[in-house]
Amino acid sequence: MEKTVNQKAWFLVLPVLVLVAFSAVIPLMTVVNYSVQDTFGNNEFYWAGLEWFSEMLDSERMWNALSRQLVFSAIILAIEVPLGIFVALNMPKKGFWASLCLVLMALPLLVPWNVVGTIWQIFGRVDIGLLGYTLDKIGIPYNYTQDFFAAWATVIIMDVWHWTSLVALLAYAGLQSIPDAYYQAAKIDQASRLAVFRFIELPKMQGVLMIAILLRFMDSFMIYTEPFVVTGGGPGNSTTFLSIDLVKMALGQFDLGPAAAFSIMYFLVILLISWVFYTVMTNLEKREGA
Amino acid sequence: MAWMAWTVPTAIFFCVIALALLTFTVLAIRYPETPRLGVLRIETTRGDRLFITLLGSAFINLAWLGTMSDPQWWALILCLVYATAVFRWV
Question: Which residues cross the membrane (chain A) (predicted)?
Answer without folding.
Answer: 12-36, 70-89, 96-123, 149-175, 196-218, 259-278
